UniProtKB/TrEMBL annotation:
InterPro entries: PAS-like_dom_sf, PAS_fold_3, Sig_transdc_resp-reg_C-effctor, Tscrpt_reg_LuxR_C, WH-like_DNA-bd_sf. One of its GO terms (biological process) is regulation of DNA-templated transcription. This is PAS domain-containing protein. Pfam families: GerE, PAS_3. Residues 151-216 form the HTH luxR-type domain.
């Protein structure tokens, strides 16, 4: 297949492509906890020049990330430093002088050079999740699938008996009926429910049942 000269010239300028890409693209140095490079789009959107971002160090993320999401930056760094192949997730970001938080989907990879054996450098790409999308139905299905997958992974924390108790709760059975069906005491069922709540991180029975339904039980 023949490629035009203009296309070859443009494709060869990878820096131009990254700078024009409508995404926050940056390389982070985990040893110093600072961003050592970012694309022009990121400077334009955040309102900070690369020199300012470098000078701010880890405080840059505190400046733009939602307080409830900031810990994810640390979680991502630790995950990749421990050998993770990638880290993906969602977070809320608010740029300089902006009033509204925006949702972003991000992915980070170790940026390994030939002469490097460590994992100090990470390349990260963040795309804004726009409220207006051309495929709203698919977006809804995506989040339902992701939530169900994540919730189902929690089932691995439960014993077989605890799974049986949770399934019966989701089906609407009362504690005395669960005890009769499983041939165990009323108090044993209560203990199972207590352990299930602790393992799944919920406090109320109604929240536990709702979580069980989300798991597809």
């Amino acid at each position: 297949m023949k490629i035009s000269v203009n296309a070859q010239t443009f494709a060869g300028s990878w820096l131009d492509i990254l700078n024009k890409l409508p995404a926050l693209v940056y390389i982070s140095n985990n040893a110093t906890k600072t961003i050592c490079w970012c694309n022009a789009y990121m400077e334009e959107q955040t309102g900070f020049k690369l020199s300012e971002i470098k000078a701010m160090g880890p405080d840059f993320f505190k400046q733009i990330m939602h307080p409830n999401d900031f810990h994810l930056a640390i979680v991502a760094q630790r995950h990749l430093m421990r050998g993770g192949k990638s880290f993906t997730g969602f977070c809320r970001v608010r740029f300089k002088k902006a009033k509204r938080w925006k949702w972003f989907y991000g992915i980070a990879y170790p940026f390994l050079l030939e002469e490097q054996s460590n994992r100090d450098l990470f390349i990260c790409v963040f795309m804004e999740i726009h409220h207006r999308t051309h495929t709203p139905h698919q977006l809804t299905c995506l989040f339902k699938d992701m939530l169900q997958y994540n919730h189902r992974s929690l089932l691995g924390r439960l014993t077989d008996r605890e799974k049986e108790v949770l399934q019966l709760l989701v089906q609407g059975a009362e504690i005395k009926h669960i005890a009769h069906q499983l041939n165990i005491s009323f108090f044993t069922v209560q203990e199972h429910i207590k352990h299930i709540k602790r393992k799944l991180g919920v406090g109320k029975l109604s929240a536990l049942i709702a979580l069980g339904k989300d798991m597809g039980l």
